[in-house]
Write a structure and sequence with these properties.
The chain is built from seven helices and ten strands. By secondary structure, it is α/β, with parallel strands linked by helices. Helix 1 runs parallel beside helix 2 and helix 1 packs parallel to helix 7. The longest helix is centred in the first third of the chain and has 14 residues. The protein is globular. The C terminus is likely disordered.
C-alpha cells in the first residue's frame, strides 16, 4: 500500500512524514494555504534525499491492457532500488513553463497535476506525472477516456470534486469510494484521496481498493502536520492493505 503525505511545509514535517513510513512526500507549488517557496522546497528535498530505508513496493501483473500499463509505471516509480520516499511537487492549472522551472530547481521525483490540465501535458514534463481526476456522484469510470489514456500520466489519482471551489484538494471532503472500486475491479492501479483520516483510511482501502492513499489535512492539527496522526494514518492504511 503506497502512502503519500502531501502539503508538507517544513523540513521537520517532511522528516516526520518519512519517519512515519510515507512513500511519497508532497509539496504544494500551487495557490494554497500550504504553498511553499523554492528555498524551503530545496531544504526539504535536501533532507529527504538523505533519508534511507527499504522502500521498494512489489507490483503484480494485470490482465487488462490499461492495468498492465499503469502497473508498469507504478513499478518504475516505486519498485526495486528505491531507498527513500519520493518527492512530489503539486501544481494546479499553471503554465508548463512554471512547472519546468520548479523541476529544474528542486529535485522532484514526481509532478502532480491537480487541476483540469489536459493529460497530454504530462508528455512535456521530464519526471513521472500523477494526474488527478476529480470525482463526484455523477462521475462515470466507463466514460472517463482521459483517465485511462496511456503514454501520458504514469499514475492516476482520484480525489473529491468540491462544488463551487476553483482550487481543489486539501479540503477534507470524501467521495463515494464505491466509484473507485469500479476502477480497481478493472485491474487498474490508482491512488485515492479526499477526506481521508487515520479514523477512516482502513475502511476507505477496504471499500475503494486503491493501490495507494493520499492525505493532507487529515493528518493535521490546527493546520500543522501532526506526527502522531501521520503514523496512525500509515498504520491504518497498511492495516487494510491490498497486495499488489
Amino acid at each position: 500500500m503506497i502512502v503519500k503525505i502531501c502539503g508538507v511545509q517544513t523540513v521537520e514535517a517532511a522528516e516526520a512524514a518519512a519517519a512515519s513510513g510515507a512513500d511519497v512526500v508532497g509539496m504544494i507549488f500551487a495557490p494554497s494555504p500550504r504553498l511553499i517557496d523554492i528555498a524551503t522546497a530545496q531544504e526539504i528535498a535536501e533532507a529527504i534525499v538523505h533519508t534511507t530505508r527499504n522502500a521498494a513496493i512489489s507490483v503484480g501483473s494485470s490482465t487488462s491492457a490499461e492495468g498492465a500499463y499503469f502497473k508498469t509505471q507504478m513499478q518504475q516509480v516505486f519498485g526495486k532500488g528505491r531507498k527513500r520516499p519520493q518527492l512530489c511537487g503539486v501544481f494546479q492549472n499553471q503554465p508548463v513553463e512554471h512547472i519546468l522551472d520548479v523541476v529544474s530547481r528542486v529535485p522532484l521525483d514526481l509532478v502532480q497535476l491537480h487541476g483540469n490540465e489536459p493529460v497530454e501535458l504530462a508528455r512535456q514534463i521530464p519526471v513521472p506525472v500523477i494526474k488527478v481526476f476529480h470525482i463526484d456522484d455523477g462521475f462515470d469510470i466507463d466514460q472517463a477516456g482521459e483517465l485511462l489514456q496511456t503514454d501520458c500520466h504514469s499514475i492516476i489519482l482520484l480525489d473529491t470534486k468540491v462544488a463551487g471551489q476553483q482550487q481543489q484538494g486539501g479540503r477534507g471532503v470524501s467521495f463515494d469510494w464505491t466509484i473507485a472500486r469500479k476502477l480497481a475491479d478493472r485491474g487498474v492501479p490508482f491512488l485515492m484521496a479526499g477526506g481521508l483520516t487515520p479514523d477512516n483510511v482502513q475502511e476507505a482501502v477496504q471499500v475503494g481498493a486503491p493501490w495507494g492513499v493520499d492525505v493532507s489535512s487529515g493528518v493535521e492539527t490546527d493546520k500543522v502536520k501532526d506526527k502522531a496522526k501521520m503514523m496512525a494514518f500509515v498504520d491504518g492504511a497498511r492495516g487494510g492493505k491490498r497486495e499488489i
